[in-house]
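RECORD TYPE: protein structure
NAME: Putative L-ascorbate-6-phosphate lactonase UlaG
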Amino acid sequence: MKSGIELINDIDNCVLENGNIAFWWLGQLGYVIKIGETVIYLDAFLYADFPNRNIPPLLKPEEIKNADFIIGTHDHDDHIDRKVWHQLSLSSPNAKFIVPKLLVDNLSNSLNIPRNRFIGLDDGLSISEKGLKITGIPSAHEFLDQDPDSGCYPYLGYVIEGNGCTLYHSGDTCLYEDIYSNLKKWNKFDVMFIPINGRDGKRYRENFIGNITYQEAVDLAGSIKPKLVVPGHYEMFSNNSEDPSLFSDYIEAKYPNINYWIGDHGQMVNISNYINTKSL
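PREDICTED:
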């Protein structure tokens, strides 16, 4: 497992041919993703003193000087890490922050990050910068919530296209009626990042807002048929977790032709190396 400057160097030294993506899992549903020469920190959860976290941060915010985009799917601490975003804005002074449109003004004002460094997305809204096209897709974090005034969604997933590749990061989500049709607007996905920690009444009463179960995640992958599916959101907090071997066992039984990756934090994953293999 690489961390700190060793991990930063691994990211910086990674050279990708057209049609390839590399990623490094930071824990929870957070990843560094490299597409071409563009570096994305997506749902990076880096606050070291957060209570009861099982996986310490692999990076200090001041070490992150290579970000082109810092992306948050929704305003929960383990996805938009308010404790560190201002420092990230200083460490990577040219990075843009991509968030749900509904959150832009609040985040800019409360985190003292200039408004012009934010890009707000919503259902079907896209931006094209630095060789990438990034599109928002609604996510249902227990409920498919919409702001009653603007109609904007507080929880998003993102489809990112670039370097001849397409990826989907769902953020935190449950299944909802249109998720399949939304995703099938794209012909193919090279990689999908989805949670598997599930939900139940006990956690909901304790304000742990739920996600798809490992079974639902397997069926979502089986329907969309990405080249590689990456389950996450299962190891950071003991009271909101799942056993990833259940995901691997079920997908191997039900969709044996779908490739998946389950591995170590800070490990470089070059997706071209995993298209015809499975790892646990």
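COMMENT: Helices lie at 4-13, 82-91, 104-111, 179-183, 201-205, 214-224, 244-254.
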